[in-house]
Design goal:
InterPro entries: NiFe-hyd_mat_HyaE, Thioredoxin-like_sf. The chain has a 5-stranded mixed sheet, with helices on both faces. The protein has 5 helices and 5 strands, in the order H-E-H-E-H-E-H-E-E-H. Helix content is about 40%, strand content about 20%.
Length: about 130
């Protein structure tokens, strides 16, 4: 992982770093496990102060959803390409993907209750249905 702050927490928690060459493999593995993939497009922590907070929250969210989420961090060098693919407009952003479908994005830092509510709506809704914020 190219950003040093927060690196220890993410690697200790076993979150892989992915790029354009490995993202589809990661998404396939999450799908095979019956989980929703959640990718963190963190951005530069020198520019986006919330980056470190998002890096700390992601493993906690994965734990809170008890195996329903599989997380990874997008490598800094791949953020532009993968950001375009998944519709990222600001950083940090959590990207939720299941069965090849982008379920939704949660940008910036949120209160814990907002994360839990929005994630539950994203992962529990029927595929193809929109989520009202």
């Amino acid at each position: 992982m190219e950003f040093q702050q927060g690196k220890h927490d993410l690697t200790r928690r076993g979150l892989p770093e992915i790029d354009a060459a490995s993202v589809d493999r990661f998404l396939g593995a999450a799908n095979e496990a019956g989980a929703v993939a959640v990718l963190l497009s963190a951005g530069d922590p020198a520019r986006f102060i919330e980056t470190i907070d998002a890096a700390v929250v992601l493993p906690e969210l994965i734990d809170a959803f008890q195996g329903r989420l599989r997380g990874a961090v997008i490598a800094r060098r791949a953020e532009s390409e993968l950001g375009q693919r998944f519709g990222v407009r600001v950083q940090p952003t959590l990207i939720f993907i299941a069965k090849g479908e982008t379920l939704g994005l949660i940008a910036k830092m949120q209160d814990w209750s907002v994360y839990v509510d929005r994630i539950a709506k994203l992962i529990d809704r029927p595929r193809g249905a929109s989520v009202l914020s």
